[in-house]
């Protein structure tokens, strides 16, 4: 499918096999119970897209703006890939094992992962992502760990006081907690 407007379309359940969506308008479309096999979504507008994948087998999403989107994954076969996508204020949930986020911007994402063994975040920007304690088993680079350290520490229940190190994002405890 190319250059089609599917914004706001409601599909549930839905099954794809050998389908390529290119330059498709998918904004605010709720698609639930999707079984996708050998499916690509390329350079499509997906703001507010709500995609619930019951099964993802060889799914590739490339160059999409998934801001305010909700992506939920139940079952993965192969390695679903999100490449060069933005996910501002999006929610990514479910079983993220073997999912690859390559060169994506995940700033402001809320992770609600149930499992994430083999999930690859190493080439994506994660500073500002929330729920980073959830995707246990996901891979990140040392630089990413350093840039997300305050958020991870805060999510772990630690109180971080370092205004001299991080003046723009300092989390300073109140008087009662000093």
Ordered list of secondary-structure elements with their pairings:
Blueprint: E1 14-22, E2 30-42, E3 50-62, E4 70-73, E5 76-77, E6 81-83, E7 91-95, E8 100-102, E9 110-115, H1 142-147, H2 149-155
Parallel strand pairs: 1-2, 2-3, 3-4, 3-5, 3-6, 4-7, 6-8, 7-9
Question: Would you write up a description of this structure?
Answer:
This is Pentapeptide repeat protein. The protein has 178 residues and is mainly beta. It has 2 helices and 9 strands. The protein has 2 domains: 14-141, no CATH class; 148-178, no CATH class. Strands 1, 2, 3, 4, 5, 6, 7, 8 and 9 form a 9-stranded parallel sheet that branches. The N and C termini lie far apart (59 Å). 29% of the residues are buried. The model is unreliable at 172-178 (pLDDT under 50).
Number of helices: 2
Distance between the termini: 59 Å
- Poorly predicted ranges (pLDDT <50, ≥5 residues)? 172-178
Characterize the main sheet. Answer: 9 strands, parallel
Mean model confidence by pLDDT: 89
Number of domains: 2
Order of helices and strands: EEEEEEEEEHH
Helix amount, in percent? under 10%
Strand portion, in percent? 25-35%
The tally of beta strands, per DSSP, is: 9
Oligomer: single chain
Radius of gyration: 17 Å
Shape: elongated
Helix-strand makeup class = mainly beta
Organism: Saccharopolyspora thermophila
Protein name: Pentapeptide repeat protein
